[in-house]
Amino acid sequence: xxxxxxxxxxxxxxxxxxxxxxxxxxxxxxxxxxxxxxxxxxxxxxxxxxxxxxxxxxxxxxxxxxxxxxxxxxxxxxxxxxxxxxxxxxxxxxxxxxxxxxxxxxxxxxxxxxxxxxxxxxxxxxxxxxxxxxxxxxxxxxxxxxxxxxxxxxxxxxxxxxxxxxxxxxxxxxxxxxxxxxxxxxxxxxxxxxxxxxxxxxxxxxxxxxx
Length: 211
Fold this sequence. Notes:
Blueprint: H1 5-11, E1 28-33, E2 36-43, E3 67-76, E4 79-90, E5 101-107, E6 119-126, E7 144-145, E8 153-157, E9 166-167, H2 169-172, E10 180-188, E11 193-196, E12 205-210
Antiparallel strand pairs: 1-12, 2-4, 3-4, 3-11, 4-10, 5-9, 5-12, 6-7, 6-8, 6-10
């Protein structure tokens, strides 16, 4: 039986394709609030803070303050002290079959007051999450891990802008489900960077993205 070429061509759109392409994977996300946070004083000289025990800045326990403050050039009555945020997160359980964590970010709430000039913000990993909001201070806070390339994050926040999401993928990929990790957030240069803390009801949020 003879079938014309025109009939065969007309049937091609309806024939099953042996090279059908699968749809691309969709990135999923799980989010969790910070489990604890605190401002940490790191004195750079013989600094005096009247509201701290023995008027010593590094003895201040600020784990239940309603804001977090970062400033590398804080003037005290007789010197300078640096302030950084110390924030902890618990790695959330991921669904079965997850092939890879694609990225992790931390989103802090809006600034308590906007900055009138740009400020550089850094993020470093703390060596431990074994600290307590009730007692953590500059004297007992965990140290930090610095790689060859310096901080995990070094970004500039423009004047009159809020802090963008900060990438902590390198840290969270090392943490098993249910494990904790902590990061320090600081500034380079002048200017006080202040955001609302967990105790204000506005905790920082960890976003974990995965396939």
